């Protein structure tokens, strides 16, 4: 293997085989990744866990044929870097998948993105460092009615979220207003709307919550009064990736404004894509916005480093949901180890290029 800076490694995008669709995941996203890589001069293909045989000499991979609009399979050389895009936790947890990933690591293939994060772990990691401690809302595991009651006394406004959730699924909002006849107000998020349940007692509330959560592990988290625009709260989506030098760097910052009847800002739930600087300038003015955007960048880098340290693995990218409150304070909500596509064209293009720049760095490192 050449140690030269312009050495182009072979990169494979790892996913799961699928009976109907050949392989799982967002095919459009995969097309974009392949197209970017090819235009940058890399050999890049999709490989399923099932087809990836590290004993080689070649593996069956998929590539997209633009002319025919079809995916075609063909033999490819073994990859130097494996970009993990297994799209769901259930698949990734399977022993057969874990075994395959271990085999790859042992055979010297660089793994880019080891696994999904769990929300509770993220908070544990960020609690450990002074620099990130102050960014996280008070968070506890939700285990019993009594622990919920205790937290509510200090934080009468809470978010309840599944530890392994995504895209707003299963999120609830809870308010305790002591003076009301029905002091507990629980907002449950459906696809677009949310409904409110009011309860007189903690035990009635708990029964309703349990009906919603079943045995799924949940966290309870201090609710943050987010900055809002026309009464719709918004938050920031930051994409942080390692660059061609292996250093964390901010690829882009977007904003999502909540749908008028939603307790989250997700686009499929009526949220909209916005320009963060515009939203912030309307609220805080130009000067403070410039300072705030700088702080968002440095904060995101700090978070990425601490998450990486906490995870105990080498990470290559993550997206983060950050809130800004009325005072301009920044709050951490979550980080995603396998970021979804950003809708902002500039962030999108840069994010795709970064994948290859960092892969090249990884391959150079492992060749040393
Ligand atoms: N503690 C909180 N306070 C206020 N808003 C929150 C809080 N937690 C989450 N949210 C809102 O809900 C959204 C989804 O929460 P998040 O933790 O990112 O879950 P998911 O994995 O479902 O995306 C956030 O982007 C934010 O808008
Ligand atoms: Mg989120």
Key features of this structure:
368 residues; Rossmann fold; D-amino Acid Aminotransferase, Chain A, domain 1; 3 domains; 6-stranded antiparallel beta sheet; 9 helices; 34% helix; binds adenosine-5'-diphosphate; binds magnesium ion
Write the layout of secondary structure elements.
Layout: E1 10-15, E2 17-18, E3 22-23, H1 27-39, E4 43-48, E5 58-65, E6 70-77, E7 81-84, H2 89-93, H3 95-106, E8 110-112, H4 119-127, H5 130-133, E9 139-142, H6 145-154, E10 157-162, E11 172-176, E12 184-189, E13 194-199, H7 202-213, E14 218-222, E15 228-229, E16 232-242, E17 248-257, E18 272-274, H8 276-311, E19 317-324, E20 330-336, H9 345-367
Parallel strand pairs: 1-4, 1-7, 7-8
Antiparallel strand pairs: 2-3, 5-6, 9-14, 10-11, 10-14, 11-12, 12-13, 15-16, 16-17, 16-19, 17-18, 19-20
The site of adenosine-5'-diphosphate (ADP) has 21 residues, from strand 10, strand 14, strand 19 and strand 20.
Structural notes for this entry:
The protein is built from nine helices and 20 strands. With 368 residues, it is an alpha+beta fold. The chain has three domains: 10-114, 3-Layer(aba) Sandwich (Rossmann fold), CATH 3.40.50; 119-135 and 226-337, 2-Layer Sandwich (D-amino Acid Aminotransferase, Chain A, domain 1); 139-222, no CATH class. α1 crosses α9 and α4 packs across α8. The termini are close together. The protein binds adenosine-5'-diphosphate and magnesium ion (MG). Adenosine-5'-diphosphate binds at residues 137, 159, 161, 165-169, 171, 221-224, 226, 235, 264-265, 321, 323, 333-334.
């Amino acid at each position: 293997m050449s140690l030269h800076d312009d050495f182009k490694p072979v990169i494979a995008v790892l996913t799961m085989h699928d009976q109907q669709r050949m392989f799982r995941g967002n095919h459009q996203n995969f097309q974009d990744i392949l197209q970017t890589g090819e235009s940058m001069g890399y050999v890049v293909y999709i490989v399923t866990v099932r087809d990836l045989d590290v004993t080689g000499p070649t593996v069956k991979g998929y590539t997209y044929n633009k002319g025919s609009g079809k995916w075609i399979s063909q033999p490819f050389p073994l990859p130097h870097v494996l970009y993990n895009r297994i799209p769901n936790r259930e698949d990734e947890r399977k022993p057969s998948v874990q075994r395959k990933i271990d085999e790859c690591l042992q055979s010297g293939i660089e793994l880019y993105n080891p696994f999904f994060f769990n929300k509770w772990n993220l908070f544990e990691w960020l609690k450990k460092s002074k620099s990130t401690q102050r960014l996280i809302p008070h968070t506890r595991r939700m285990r019993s009615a009594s622990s919920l009651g205790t937290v509510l006394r200090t934080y009468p406004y809470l978010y309840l979220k599944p530890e392994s959730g995504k895209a707003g699924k299963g999120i609830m909002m809870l308010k305790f207003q002591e003076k009301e006849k029905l002091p507990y107000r629980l907002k449950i998020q459906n696809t677009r709307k949310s409904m409110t349940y009011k309860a007189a007692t903690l035990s009635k509330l708990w029964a309703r919550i349990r009906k919603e959560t079943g045995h799924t592990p949940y966290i309870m988290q201090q609710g943050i009064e987010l900055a809002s625009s026309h009464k719709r709260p918004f938050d920031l989506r930051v994409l942080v990736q390692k660059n061609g030098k292996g250093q964390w760097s901010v690829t882009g910052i977007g904003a999502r404004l909540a749908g008028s009847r939603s307790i989250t800002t997700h686009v499929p739930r009526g949220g909209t894509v916005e320009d963060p600087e515009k939203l912030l300038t309307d609220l805080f003015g130009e000067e403070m916005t410039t300072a705030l955007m700088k702080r968002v960048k440095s904060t995101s880098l700090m978070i990425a480093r601490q998450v990486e340290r906490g995870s105990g693995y080498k990470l290559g990218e993550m997206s983060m949901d950050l809130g800004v409150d009325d005072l301009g304070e920044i709050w951490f909500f979550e980080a995603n180890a396998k970021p979804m596509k950003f809708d902002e064209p500039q962030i999108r293009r840069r994010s795709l290029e970064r994948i290859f720049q960092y892969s090249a760095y990884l391959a150079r490192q492992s060749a040393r």
